[in-house]
Structure formats: C-alpha cells, structure tokens
Design goal:
The complex is a heterodimer of chains A (715) and B (511). With 715 residues, chain A is α/β, with parallel strands linked by helices. In chain A, 40% of the residues lie in helices and 17% in strands. Chain A has a seven-stranded mixed beta sheet, sandwiched between helices. In chain A, α2 packs across α9. Chain A is globular, with a radius of gyration of 29 Å. The mean pLDDT of chain A is 95. Chain B is an alpha/beta fold and 511 residues long. In chain B, the strands form two sheets. Chain B has a six-stranded mixed beta sheet, sandwiched between helices. A two-stranded antiparallel sheet of chain B has the order 7-8. In chain B, α2 links the parallel β4 and β5. Chain B is elongated and about 95 Å long. The termini of chain B are far apart. The chains are: A alpha/beta (715), B alpha/beta (511). At the A-B interface, α10, β8, α12, α16 and α22 of A face α1, β2, α2, α3 and α4 of B. β26 of chain A pairs antiparallel with β7 of chain B.
Chain lengths: 715, 511
C-alpha cells in the first residue's frame, strides 16, 4: 500500500468528547463506526481510497466491534455486497470513485434499489470532478434520479459531514432507499476537526452473527412480477417517506437573508465557495454569515417541493448554483414552482457555466450577473472591480510570459517497470510501422503523454482488449491492447480475454504485471506477491512479481495458447516479442505478460533494508546510472525513449556547445532502462552504470586496488 | 478580519501534503481556526499539484464559539502567500491570476524540475527561468527566491521542510517561528534534518538570489582574431589537437581564418565565432577512438565517482553501455573497403535483418575492459586514413564553402548558414540525420537565386534550421522547405515490413 495509516487507525478509536483532526474522507470513515455499520466494502480509487485503506489496516479495532471489511474486486461486487441490507437489518457502507465506479456498479445498484433496503445502505462516492480529476466529467446525480437513490451532498465541514453520515443511514432505513454520500475531491481531502462520539458495535455483527436466513419473501427479489410493484413504491411510498424525514430533521438549511429579497439555492458541497464569493462581493460577513437568503441542499435528491416553494415564494428572483451538466436540480425547481403556480424567476445555468468546476471565481461571476439583473441595488462595485482586475491580470501575465507554460502531467515514477514497455513499443513501430494501440485505465495511461504519445482509445477500466474487437477486422495490421493487472482482474479477464478467445479473434494483448492496482494508492490484488515471499527475498531490490503466477495460470486455464512472459526492463527482448506477436502466423489471441514489480512498492522495501544493512556495516551494492557529458550528443533521443524524471538535461559545461546535455539526477534507482534503451535503440555511448559498493569486503578492496594499480600505468 | 490564504505549489510526491499538515497543526496549536485541502489524485505521480490552507487570524478563544466558514478554493487576487518548490509551478500559479501586486507575497524556489516536453526537444526546449522570475516579481507584493532544493539537499532533508521555513519567515503567519519548529520537532523521524531544512528555508527566503554571470577568461593568444572570437578559437584549437594532432589543429585555424576573411570586420567576428564553435565540434566528431579515449581518462573515473555519490572508502564498478556497429568499424577502414562493408550491412538490413552491431557492457573499471578501450583509443593514427575522416572533411568543406560564399555577399545569410553547423552532432543515426538535413539545406537553400532579397533568404534558412530541430522524422523541416517552394528532403530507403494478419484469419477479397 502507498503508505501506513497507523496514526489514522488510532483516530478511529477516539471516543465521546475527544477531537478528531484529519481529512474529510477519514472523518466519514470514523462516522461509519459511530453509526453502527456492520459491513464495509469498496473498490479503491482517488479521492476515496483512504476509507478502505484505513479500514483494512484497522483490523483489530474492527474485530473488536464485529465489523466486516471486504476489498472488492470491482465496484459491481461492492454494490452487490449491499444486498445484505435488503433482507437483514444490517447497516452497510461501500465506497468507490464516481462516475466510473458507479457506472460499473450500475447493474447491482438497480437491483438493490428496486426491492429497497431494510438496513441502512450507504455508498460513499468520491465525485472525481474538476481540477485533479482523472475520469470522464459526468454527474453521479443521474443515477440517483434513475434508480431512486438518496443523494447527499453535505456542506464540506467535518462535523456536518459526520452528522450527515448518521442521517444517511437513518434516512435510508426510513425510506428503504439506498443512500449515496457524494464528496468532491477537495472535500475528501479537506483537513479539519470535529468532536467525536463513541463507536457503536452493531447489533448484528461478526461477533453477534445471525443464526440463519430470513424467511422467503418474493418481494425482496428484483424479479418480475414484484418489480412492477417496486416501481410504484418508489414514487408512492419511498420518496414521500424520504421527504418527510428530510423536512422533519431539517437536513436542508436556510441561512442568511438580512439583505434584499433574492434567494440562492446551492448544493451543500458548494456552500463554502458560495460564502467566499459572497464575501468577495461584500455580501457575507467575516465569519461567513451570508447577507442574502440561502437554501443549502444537503440532500439533493429527492428535493422537498414544499421547502423549495416556501423558499421561493416571496423572492424577487432565485439563483440555483448547481455544478456540472445537465442542470437536474434547476429543472426540477422550475417544474416545482410551475406546479405550485409560483412565478418567481429562476436563474442558473443561464448565468453560471454549464460545464466545469464551480470555483469561487466562477460563482462570483454568476452572482454578479444575477444581481445586476435582479437586484441592481445590492450589486457590488468592489466585487466587479476585483473580477475585472483578475481577468486583466491573467491577460497581462500571458503576454509577459510570451508563450504557454509547458504542461506537467503525471508520469511514470522513477524506475517504473511500465516505462520500458512503451520504449520497446515505440521502437517496434519504427521497425514495422504504426500500430493501433487500445489503451486502458491505470498508470500505463501515462504513456498517452509525452514522450510516448501512445494510445488511440480508452474505453474504460479493463476494456482495452474488448475495445479493439471492432477495429481489428477492419484493419490490415494487427491492433495491440494494453492492460494493467488491475484492469485485468477488474474487468479485462471477462470482457476482453474471454470474448477474444470465444470469438477466436486475431488479437494481441499486453498485460503489465506490476503486482498492484490503482495509480493513486498501489493496493494489493490477487496477483500481488505474497508478503513472506517479499520479506524473505535475499535481494530486496529485486522484483518479486514472478513469484505469483495467478495471471498466467488463469490465461492458460482459459485456453490461451500463445503466451510470452518477458522481463519489462529487457527492451531488446520486449521489442522482439512484440514484433513477433504482431507478425506471427499464429491466428488466435496472443498475450505478452510484461513482468516487473511496481517500483514504488520495491523502494518501500529497499530503503529500510539498505538503511539497516548500512547501520550494521554490512556490504551494500547501490546502482546509479550516469551520462558522460563529453560523448552526449545533446540530441536527447534517450529522453524521447524514456521520460524518466531523473533523466534530465543540464547546461553543457563545454563552452563550445550550445545545447543542453543529458544528465542523470540524484534519485535514480538504477532500474537499468537507460542502458537497455542505449542498446536496443543504438543510442550514443554515453550511458554508464555505476555500482557503488558500500562497506566493501576484503575481496572487493583487494580487487579494486589491483585494478587501479594496473589501470594507472596506462593512464 | 479576512482569513490568511496560503497557496502551495509543488510536484506530486514532494511532500507538499506534509507542509500543509504542518501549517494546519501549527495554526491549531497557536489557537487559530484553520482548514486545508489538496487535489492529489494521479498528480501524486510527479504531476503539478497545489495545496491550499486558510488560517483565520483571530484566536478561536475570541470568536465566541462561532466558527468561520473557510474556502476550499484559492481565490485569484485574494491569496496572501504563494509558496512553490519549483519555479515553473510558481509561474503556473501566477499565470492563473492567483498572485496580486496588492496582496501576495511570493516565495519561490529558483530551481527547475524540467518537464518532459522541455527535455525531449532535440535542441534546447527549456522555458526561460529569468522570465518566470520577472513575472513573479511583477505580480507580487514581495518576492523571495532561492534554491530550495539545494537548501534541502544541504540539510539532508526534503524540500517541504525548507518551504515551511520560508513560509514562517514570510511574515504572513499570525504566530512565530517557535510554534512552527515545535511542530516539526514533534513530527518524529528525521526531525533534526527537517529542522535544519526549516532553518535553511527561514534564512534563505530573506534574500533574493542573483545569478552571477561567469567572467570570461582573457585570451592573449590568437590575437589575430577579434577578441570575441578568441576564447572559442582557443578551445577549438586545443580540442582539435587533442582529437588528432598538431597538424589537425593547424587545419582548424586555417579554416577559421578563411571564414574570418569572408566575414570582414563589420560584425566583430560574430559569424566567425559561431562558425568556429561548430567547426571545432564537427572536426572532433564522435567515433570509437574518441569515445574510447574519453571513457578511459583518469579524470573521467573521478567524475563518475562524484556523480554516483561514492564515498572515499566505497568501491565503484563502472559498466559502459556501448553498441558499435558496422559503420563505426568501417569508419576506421580505408574508403573502398569501408564502402563495401557498409553496403554488405545495408543489404542484410534490406533482407529484414537487424543491422550488425555489438551490444557491449564493458567493465571500464576492470583490467580487461579498460585495456580494450585503451587499445581502441590508440588507433588514432588510423583515423586519418579511414573512410569516415575523409567523408567528414568533405562535408565540412562543403559547409564552409557555402558559409564563405554567402558571407561575402550578405552577412546575415552567411551567419544563418554558419549557425546551421548546430545540426551536426552526436553519434550513429543522430549524426547521420543531422548531416542529411544540413546537406539538404546547403543544396536547396544556400543558393539565393529564388529569394526576393537577402533578408528573405536568411529568414528561410533560419526557419529551416529551427524546423530541423523540431522533430526526429523531419516533418517540420519538409514543411518549411515546401513552404518556400523547395523540394522536401529525399526519402531515405528503409526496409519496410508489412504487418498482415495471418492467412488463417484473413477473409474476403484481399489476396
């Protein structure tokens, strides 16, 4: 795993009256335990991966409480896990990254929501939207609408978020609807504090297990004919029950209203940004108390029509602040007011951006336009001056800079085993021409950036092989699908491999077997090398993924006949193997497994191991690559085949030369790609591998002395 | 009272999150309401990212139980402190309009972590650091700039500790250095190093670093050349003598004199200086003899020890990665023989085989590997009689002839052609490509007949030169040439292998 969560696990033990300090997603994790959750599951992914990471590490605490934690193989399996709350009064919570995770979970979610739940079911989704997001920009809201899920979008204040988790379970139980708690990226990572309550051991748990199954009840099945009844219940009973609970517990808040007679309706998650925008316009005090009337929707689905009508009734106009498209809430408010025969003008996406994050500035611009139109008396000159100055400053800086700043997308880590595979792929295409590359989700998607710029399509996690099924028959050249081991287990095995074998496709699949999944957390999967294998290895710096052969065995078991396993770092061999796969007469599915353990994980082992050996004054061999500046051509072909963060350029120290030369920075982990590329691509002879022997033994020292003596004679 | 707004710019994995956490802990300890957030995501993998912290400057005790609402987003023009561990990231924040002259203190590292886009350029793709600094200065209330990474390295810690020190020194925090240091001390492992880094950051941010230009050494020798040319000529002369012999050094000087005569006195030898620079580099072309010589020098072995960070008592093994092929060896043979050998290798390649080459991992620190290289280095005498030497001299002469002819007519055209010497560099395929491009420019662009005036002629050459460095495939160069109504470079014959689907799966009409 990416890091240790020992400190965070401690925070989960805090009792009543103690203060929790930390990130939003961990506050929510603590809130689950305070709400008497019985089981927790999920699929990792930023920005919510810490929830599951911490739960997994908090084994002891969870055993004491009787809470079960499951690391699910994908979001569909996590959503299906909530099925436990259909028949039994169990509170359960699962988590994933949305929109992509919700897409994968959609089938199970529909089947969960149709019969409805007995015990509270909560899905904590990280709304991966806006700056820092890594997925398609869509709203989770659509799922709440179509499947009748509760959607909770709380104000990003830790104490409030924790309260809303408790309400979410109760609301779910009151309405039989599964609940979705939606947290934006910045809310997941917001650091704040809240006063804890004691954890609650669930009445039914791994410690207090049920004796046997519930009695047979056909209405709990998502199966006709009861599905027709379920549909009626959603609108006839469940949503009205939810609305009653929301109104009764005042989950939506009415704040401010001392000035003017216009109103603002805002998603809870946007509240802090709205307050700052109001402050910039002089319409909120220093503590953040708004002067305008605000309706904060902490539950954005279902809306409570009476609340909306009451809020809008006496207003001259209302502005709806709703992030993303389409404007579901705004449309529903318009319909609600029309039905109530209220003529209050409603503004929203006509004044605010349809697409993109609602930053403070975006909100302020919308507010400014809204006030100018509907309440010119309270429009703020100071605020407008600030907005104008900001636009002018940006223009001025752009002019001063002269050209666009180079982008800095994420990239493969230093020594990553996936980088050499794409170097080989680049070289193969120099030999046999361009190849259609079906890319996938995972760290390897960084190969779509420079210097590799590889990949024609990304259709989803584990979908690469499936996504070339229509391309291959239409092209005279073979296409190549690239997939990580994470994607392989998440989906690719079934949607890709099985399909290609069944259809006898002439397909090529490259599996990057690095032993872990998730670009944002390196979580373990079924093909992760076992802990004892790793800890007992004589050389901790070595890749251990070859010790786990589940992927190979699975492929053979399914009937893959053409299977090659290649060391990722051997660029020459990889180049030849890819070349063979793309040109062989073998007609079926060809799979190359590129084997090399995630370097982050290896370095996490290597650093303490080396430190211990050095402190015991034992022999340690450390490798660092280097470039001989004198022979470096300054052409940077090596960088165009690597992009390693530690392979950089520096000014030439030779005054005759004008172009910068290549250099290897400190931080090189000695993966060997520089040398491997130099050979595979016949680069310049500048690269050397330096092997530093610390605490050398007597043989090292003697040999070195003899060598230096002989060499000295000829120098 | 407005909250104090702090925006941190960093690269993923640099410890920006630790800094944000320290800030929050310090503010909490000092009794202030605070909030921070971040957007790590995949940016953890060395991408650009930011952290944002707000501190409400009234102690919680005096707020009467009320909690201020703090923002999760930085607001452009309403940031009190921008601190970034990398200069381009500072530029990015300023370009987003975050910093303002009225309110923002900017504390930036002067160090650059170059982006892939900058590094992969065939020539020099680095963004101008000076320009980034100027923009940051112009759009800030106060600017402190120093090399945070160097400070971190000196303190043997990570850059986040240095940044924290710089933040504490910036004067925007409502509490003192002691609180910050207490938090660092309590952070456990590595606290001493972190404190040293903190101190370095605290002191470093007090001064603005000025880059001192290195003073050019005075040159008395080579007085026949204009003063601005002397240093380059001296270096070039020394380099050519070392490469081959005194006669070769004399040949170098003779060539430079010819260029100088053509240039005349009007431009203080600016053309001659650049021609002399690229001439020296070209005349000392990289061949196996030179590489073997450079790799076996005592100074090189010392440099390698330094670069790999070896302590005196450590033993260092050096493995050199080389892959000499047929052209490299042929270069040492007489022309006729060399031509036959290269032709044989090409015919092999045409049959779909890989070019014959030897992938060597030579242990230069061991006796066998070292002596092999020494022997190669001793083949210097053969070089003069070899095919490569003759070929290079012929190409050099054709370039010089074009430069001289053009310079006599129009200085600018001559200067542009002289600068085209930059295209020839390196080894193997890189070197071939450069010479291929230069030869084409000389053939098609050096004669000026088709241009309206010398200024247009010079501009066309400059455009072609820049284009030649734009991409490996030469697409940009071809486009630049075609834009001037000139032919694209001739296509170099390359064996083509069609990737067909196997007979078993091929269906339909194609045979």
């Amino acid at each position: 795993m990416e890091r240790s969560f020992a400190k965070e696990v401690q925070a989960l033990r805090l009792g009543a009256g103690e203060v929790f300090r930390g990130e939003g997603i961990l506050a929510v994790t603590k809130a689950l335990l305070q709400s008497g959750v019985s089981y927790v599951g999920g699929y990792q992914g930023a920005p919510v991966s810490h929830l599951l990471d911490v739960m997994v590490e908090a084994k002891d605490l969870l055993a004491e409480l009787g809470v079960h934690v499951e690391t699910c193989t994908n979001e569909a399996s996590a959503a299906a896990m909530l099925g436990a709350s259909v028949n039994y009064p169990l509170r359960g919570a699962v988590t994933w990254k949305s929109i992509v995770g919700t897409n994968v979970a959609a089938d199970a979610l529909s089947n969960l929501a149709s019969p409805g739940v007995t015990g509270g079911a909560l899905i904590v989704v990280g709304e991966d939207y806006g700056e820092g997001a890594s997925v398609i920009q869509e709203r989770t809201y659509a799922y709440a609408l179509k499947s009748s899920l509760l959607l909770i979008d709380p104000r990003p204040d830790l104490a409030h978020m924790v309260d809303m988790v408790g309400h979410a379970f109760a609301l779910s139980e009151a309405s039989s609807m599964p609940a979705v708690l939606m947290l934006r990226i910045r809310a997941c990572h917001v650091r704040g504090r809240f006063a804890c309550r004691d954890n609650v051991a669930p009445p039914i748990s791994t410690r207090e297990a049920m004796e046997g199954p519930a009695s047979f009840d056909y209405t709990k099945l998502a199966h006709p004919p009861v599905t027709f009844g379920h549909e009626k219940k959603k609108s006839g009973e469940r949503i009205p029950a939810a609305r009653r609970y929301i109104a009764q517990h005042r989950l939506n808040e009415r704040l401010g209203g001392t000035r003017g007679d216009v109103g603002l309706v805002v998603q809870g998650g946007l509240y802090n940004s709205l307050v700052r925008a109001l402050q910039q316009l002089g319409l909120a005090d220093d503590m953040g108390e708004p002067a305008l009337a605000v309706l904060v929707l902490n539950v954005t689905y279902p809306l409570v029509p009476d609340e909306i009508a009451d809020f809008c009734r006496d207003k001259r106009a209302v502005l709806v602040l709703e992030e993303g498209q389409p404007e579901f809430i705004e449309q529903e408010i318009l319909a609600t007011l029309r039905r109530a025969n209220l003529a209050t003008p409603v503004a929203g996406k006509d004044l605010l951006p349809m697409a993109g994050e609602y930053t403070v500035e975006a909100i302020a611009r919308g507010l400014s336009a809204f006030l100018a139109r509907h309440a010119p008396g309270i429009a703020s000159e100071e605020g407008d001056a600030w907005l104008a100055a900001t636009a002018a400053r940006r223009e001025e800086v752009a002019k001063d800079l002269g050209r666009a700043l180079p982008a800095r997308p994420p990239q493969f880590c230093v020594g990553c085993p996936e980088r050499p595979v794409f170097a080989a792929l680049k070289l193969v295409q120099q030999d046999i021409g361009p190849v259609h590359v079906a890319a996938d989700i995972g760290c390897h998607a960084f190969a779509t950036f420079e210097p590799f710029s590889q990949g024609h399509s990304i259709l989803g996690y584990g979908m690469s092989l499936a996504s070339r099924a229509g391309v291959s028959p239409m092209m005279r050249r073979r296409a190549l699908a690239v997939m990580g081991d994470g994607g392989f287990w998440h989906n690719g095995l079934i949607t890709g491999v099985q399909s290609a074998l069944f259809n006898r496709d002439d397909a090529v699949l490259m599996i990057l077997k690095n032993g872990y999944t998730s670009a944002t957390g390196t979580q373990e999967i079924i093909s992760t090398p076992a802990d004892d294998v790793k800890s007992h290895a004589a050389d901790q710096a070595q890749s251990r993924v070859h010790d786990n052969q589940v992927i190979e065995a699975t492929l053979r078991g399914l009937g893959v006949q053409w299977l090659r396993v290649v060391d990722s770092y051997d660029v020459t061999k990889m180049r030849a193997t890819v070349d063979e796969a793309l040109t062989t007469d073998f007609a079926g599915l060809k799979v190359i497994v590129a084997e090399g353990e995630c370097q982050l994980e290896r370095q996490r082992r290597v650093k303490p191991w080396r430190a211990r050996l050095l402190s015991e004054r034992k022999r340690v061999v450390r490798v660092k690559y280097g470039v001989d500046e004198d022979t470096c051509s300054g052409d940077h072909s090596c960088i165009r085949l690597s992009g390693c963060p530690t392979l950089s350029v520096k000014p030439a120290s030779d005054p005759l030369r004008v172009d910068p030369v290549a250099t290897v920075l400190d931080g090189c982990v000695g993966c060997g790609l520089c040398g491997s590329n130099a050979h595979a691509a016949s680069l310049c002879p500048s690269f050397y591998r330096g092997e530093v022997i610390q605490n050398p033994n007597w043989r090292d020292r003697m040999l070195s002395r003899v060598r230096r003596a002989v060499i000295g004679v000829f120098q | 009272m407005k909250p104090i707004c702090i925006l941190v710019g960093a690269l993923g994995g640099e410890g920006g999150g630790v800094l944000a956490q320290w800030l929050i802990e310090a503010a909490t300890e000092a009794g202030y309401a605070t909030q921070g957030t971040s957007i790590p995501g995949v940016a953890q993998r060395t991408g650009a990212t930011t952290y944002y912290v707000e501190i409400f400057p009234v102690p919680v005790a005096k707020l009467g139980g009320r909690a201020p609402v703090l923002s999760l987003y930085p607001v452009p023009g309403a940031v009190d402190l921008v601190v970034a561990s990398e200069l381009l990231e500072t530029g990015r924040i300023v370009a987003a309009g975050m910093a303002s002259r009225e309110r923002t203190t900017v504390v930036t590292s002067t160090s650059r972590t170059l982006t892939t886009a900058e590094k992969m350029v065939m020539g020099d793709g680095r963004f101008d650091s000076q320009r980034l600094l100027e923009v940051a200065r112009k759009h800030s209330r106060a600017l402190a700039a120093f090399d945070m990474n160097a400070a971190a390295a000196r303190a043997n810690t990570v850059v986040s500790a240095v940044m924290f020190g710089a933040v504490a020194a910036s004067g925007v925090l409502p509490f003192g250095r002691d609180v910050c240091e207490r938090i660092v001390r309590a952070s456990g492992r590595g606290a001493d190093a972190s404190l040293a880094g903190f101190a370095a950051g605290f002191e470093g941010s007090q001064d603005v670093v000025q880059a001192a230009a290195p003073a050019a050494p005075a040159r008395d020798a080579f007085s026949e050349f204009p003063p601005s040319v002397r240093e380059i000529v001296a270096l070039g002369h020394a380099r050519t003598v070392e490469f081959q012999d005194a006669a070769y050094g004399e040949l170098y000087l003779t060539r430079v004199r010819r260029v100088l005569a053509a240039e005349g006195a009007a431009h203080d030898g600016a053309l001659t200086r650049e021609a002399a620079r690229f001439l020296a580099l070209w005349m000392c072309f990289d061949d196996v003899v030179r590489v073997a010589d450079l790799k076996t020098r005592a100074s090189r072995i010392q440099r390698v020890r330094r670069e790999v960070g070896a302590a005196d008592e450590d033993v260092v093994r050096i493995v050199d990665h080389m892959k000499p092929g047929v052209p490299e060896f042929a270069g040492l043979l007489p022309s006729a023989l060399a031509t036959r050998l290269v032709r044989w290798d090409r015919s092999r390649q045409a049959r779909g085989k890989a070019p014959l080459a030897f992938a060597l991992k030579l242990r230069t620190d061991a006796i066998g590997g070292f002596l092999l290289l020494r022997m190669l280095a001793a083949c210097r005498g053969w070089r003069r009689r070899g095919g490569r030497f003759a070929q290079e001299q012929a190409l050099i002469e054709s370039w010089l002839a074009a430069v001289i002819a053009a310079a006599q007519n129009d200085w600018n055209v001559g200067n542009e052609l002289a600068l085209c010497g930059r295209l020839v560099k390196g080894y193997g395929a890189t070197n071939e490509r450069g010479k291929h491009n230069l030869a084409h420019i000389l053939r098609e662009l050096a004669p000026g007949g088709r241009f309206a005036n010398p200024a247009a002629h010079a501009a066309a050459i400059r455009e072609a030169r820049v284009a030649a460095l734009a991409d490996e495939g030469g697409k940009a160069l071809d486009q630049a040439l075609v834009a001037h109504g000139l032919p694209a470079r001739p296509v170099v014959a390359q064996p083509v292998r069609w990737v067909r689907k196997s007979a078993a799966t091929r269906t339909g009409t194609d045979a």
